[in-house]
Design brief:
With 263 residues, this protein is of the alpha+beta class. The chain contains 10 helices and 10 strands.
């Protein structure tokens, strides 16, 4: 089989590795980069254009693109060179950022690739090439470009995200969040869900849970203290929501092996 791709790296990426002062360094890409965001709320800047990310968004960067990100995020990421003109044409036809209709399917492909790349069994390189082709095919044929209808409100929603992330420890309402975006509560709720893919209250909950994760991973604080530091009104409610989300208790999460896969 003709070699179609050369993989630079493949990983489940955590931006805290390089995100200093709330911003990643500006860099120029040297290969194609495909990313699937599993934690959004950040802004990706490509060639001077800002894109507000949400879980399920895909980035397709081409060689020579200038890019950086603002705020913490997580994503699956693969960097590769392509040697087939026809495939390059397909890649270049894709938008830089768009919403993929089936995040679960794409996540599963990335996970399969990570496992194969880690095991490195006979023929794994051919397997990875076939998976890259599968990803490109899915993106070309089954994407849905982020609605342009609400693109003009991306700054308003970014303001609201910043407000939520700075105020999550307090009891904040939809009116409070809407006020930070300079939109009416009902319109804010509609636009936020369209742009971010989740409601404002769901985003607030995700922010609190993400904070709790970091505290569980990086501190020895008591679970009850982490609950209140993360903005939860009670220890029991925190335990209930955490277990529903992660399928384990906060204490089990703390003791489990949750290291990022870096290959």
């Amino acid at each position: 089989m003709e070699k179609l791709f050369s993989i630079g790296y493949l990983r489940n990426y955590n931006s805290k590795e390089v995100c200093f002062h709330n911003k990643t360094p500006l860099r120029k890409t040297t290969s194609y980069e495909i990313e699937l965001y599993t934690l959004g709320g950040n802004i990706t800047v490509i060639n001077g254009k800002e894109y507000l990310q949400k879980p399920g968004n895909v980035v397709v960067a081409s060689p020579g693109d200038a890019r950086y990100s603002i705020k913490y995020f997580k994503c699956y990421s693969i960097h590769f060179s392509c040697y087939c003109t026809e495939i390059i044409d397909y890649l270049n036809s894709l938008p830089k950022v768009f919403e993929f209709y089936n995040q679960k399917k794409l996540s599963e492909i990335f996970e399969d690739m990570l496992l194969a790349n880690s095991a490195k069994k006979a023929g794994y390189e051919l397997y990875l090439q076939s998976k890259i082709l599968e990803i490109i095919s899915l993106l070309v044929n089954n994407t849905s470009v982020i609605s342009k209808k609400y693109a003009q409100y991306s700054k308003n929603i970014s303001n609201a995200c910043n407000f939520i992330e700075s105020s999550y420890q307090h009891d904040i309402s939809l009116d409070d969040m809407a006020k930070s975006s300079f939109l009416s509560p009902s319109f804010f709720h509609k636009v936020f869900k369209e742009v971010m893919g989740i409601t404002p209250s769901q985003y607030l909950l995700k922010t609190r849970l993400s904070t709790a994760q970091k505290l569980l991973e990086n501190t020895n604080k008591k679970i009850i203290d982490i609950a209140y530091l993360s903005g939860f009104s009670s220890h029991s409610y925190f335990n209930q929501v955490f277990k529903q989300t992660f399928k384990m208790t906060p204490n089990q999460y703390r003791t489990s092996q949750k290291n990022e896969i870096i290959l």
